[in-house]
Amino acid sequence: MPDLRPLTAPLAKKAADELFEKPDRLEEDLAALRAWLAKCPHIKSRTDDQFLTMFLRGSKHSLERAKEKLDMYYTVRTALPELVRNRDPEEPKLLELIKLGVAVPLPNTVTPDGPRIILVRPGVYDPSKYTIQEVFRYNTMMTDIMMKEDDNLIVAGQMGILDLSNCTMAHFLQFSPTFVKKATMWSQEGSPLRQKGFHYVNTPSGFEVVYNMFKSFLNEKNRSRLFVHGSNLESLYEHIPKSMLPKEYGGDAGPIQDIVNAWAKKIISYKEYFKEEDQYGTDEKKRPGRPKNADSLFGLEGSFRKLEPCRMVNLRPISAALHEKAKRELNERPERIEEDLAALRQWLARTPHIRARIDDQFLVTFLRGCKYSLERAKEKIDMFYSVRTAIPELMRNRDPNRERVREIVRLGVGLPLPLTDGPDAPRIMLIRPGVYDPKRYTIEEVIKVSTMINDIVMLEDDNMVIAGQVGILDLANVTSAHFLQFSPTFVKKMTMMSQEGSPLRQKGFHYINTPTGFETVFNMFKSFMSEKNRSRLYVHGSNLEKLYEHIPKRLLPKEYGGESDSLKDITANWEKKILSYREYFLEEDQYGTDERKRVGKPKTADSLFGMEGSFRKLEVD
Asked: Where does the chain cross the membrane (predicted)?
């Protein structure tokens, strides 16, 4: 179990609703972050659960964003030693600033799951005595403590009040464009905290110059959260109830000096923590690729990268019922899809051994199949192409114009049925191996056609991708010659291709018209399946009434007592569809893995399908 401070019930609900937090996935995500840090020679980071969880929460549990944020957090800090190094709270000048309380977190939040309110009062320090860097250093100390202690801040974000009373032109002149850029980058790109709003009160003349300079460096989302109230505190109360504010602001939170004094004690108690902090950061000499230094981060030519999406996702719209299922069961959040797709493409660009399709519709199949775990999606894409490359007899030279391929297509060995049991129900696949002659066709030829149908439904069928698939295996007319084609190695290839090497989710499998000898092959298949998939197998013998208890007869072809199209019509429609995909299948031969370029041990047919030991089982649902 992760070693985390328990959240209150309201904050736990907010974390689930707004940050997509799944307690059962935290341990896996934390392990993934630590594993990634172990492979990043340039980052020396804290790795305790509480610290790393802050980045997951600040990135709405997107592992890729959390990694990017963690890297930038330490990169920016390393590039700003004047703000985040040598922070001894007992150093006399710094202690003076601490006791002034230029910035203080207010003790109360508007609701139990509300953001932390930070009151910033630059007018209380003398700009002729203290530099803005010294003031900001104090601010980083206060922020570090809150990041360590304050769950409201981490989960609900922060709300700022900037009181500009007693600010003079000397204060504003300390804000050079370079410092402004450093400060905004530190608080925006280099921080896991979420800014929920900023309120400016008691604004003097000249404020607009600095305000507009700050705004120019902020992204659109943060710009929309800025509010200027002038000297009108009633306007502020519309956003922040006066009961939250110190007595000096007409509120009930007590005198401001009491809050400042309590924080001064707290900061001093963290003396050893701040000393430890100096050992963490980045070593840009060890960074793969181009180093990030102060000039590249804060140079004013051009603006720094904004993490705001700028391209539209090219996806087929899904029905309302499937949208709800994708959200509820697969953790799909439309506002995050673009970012997750970009993360997958960036990973593929850095993975020399994989040559993959990178269009949105293809990649989103893996996100949905992995319930939007980016790490699992990467693993699944890698295995998808690794397995396919290792079985060219099934995945290469799939030209539907070849007469032998067309013969098998016309037999209708494997067919997706046209109807589903509701708008958000799984796709039903009917498989009839007894219709092909094992003396004329090998099992490899038959399965090759099956992979072609599978590829098409992966691309076209939202019910299949989101709701999964239910299989019916009709063993009527299957002979011992059919069973003898299923060698243990071939069975292992098949189960690996359909389980580890596929993003599709199996929701059940029904066996009907089972002949003598079925148990031998059935038990062989079961031995290679995960426990979850084994529990979804049903054997009905020749009793179709038992099948109807799971799959309504109206969904089945006429030949099975159903009300759907005939097998002949379904087969003819699929023949046309497969032929229309000819160019796609010819293109497919260019995709796969080049194991010579894989970092680490290559994945070959022998290592993937060799019968010594079992392969790793992935729970894909």
From this structure: none
CB 291, CB 284: distance < 8 Å: yes
pLDDT in tens, 35-59: 999 999 999 999 999 999 999 999 9
Q: Following DSSP, what letter does each residue of 169-200 receive, concatenated? A: HHHHHT--HHHHHHHHHHHHTS----EEEEEE
- Distance from chain centroid for Cα 41: 24
For the domain made up of 397-591, give the CATH fold. Answer: Phosphatidylinositol Transfer Protein Sec14p (3.40.525)
- Residue 7, CA distances (Å) to 59, 123, 241 in order: 18, 36, 24
Give CA–CA dist 434/512, Å, rounded. Answer: 12
| CATH level 3 topology of 87-273 | Phosphatidylinositol Transfer Protein Sec14p (3.40.525)
| Cβ–Cβ < 8 Å for 328, 335 | no
- Residue 226 parent element (H or E): strand 226-230
Helix (H, G, I), strand (E, B) or coil at 541: strand
pLDDT above 90 as % of the chain: 64
Least Cα distance to 105 among 146, 59, 166 occurs for: 146
Contact in structure between 155 and 199 (CB atoms under 8 Å): no
- Interior CA angle at 503 toward 524 and 579, to 5°? 95
pTM of the model: 0.54
Type of residue numbered 211:
Y
CA dist 199 and 255 (Å) reads: 20
Q: What is the pLDDT of residue 297?
A: 79
Same fold, 87-273 and 397-591: yes
Q: Give Rg (Cα) of the chain.
A: 31
For the record, the structure tokens of 301 come out as 């030519």
CA distance 191 to 189: 6
Phi, psi (5° rounding) for residue 427?
-80, 140
Using DSSP, state whether 203 is helix, strand or coil: coil
Please, what is the angle between helix 177-188 and helix 132-149, to 10°? Answer: 0
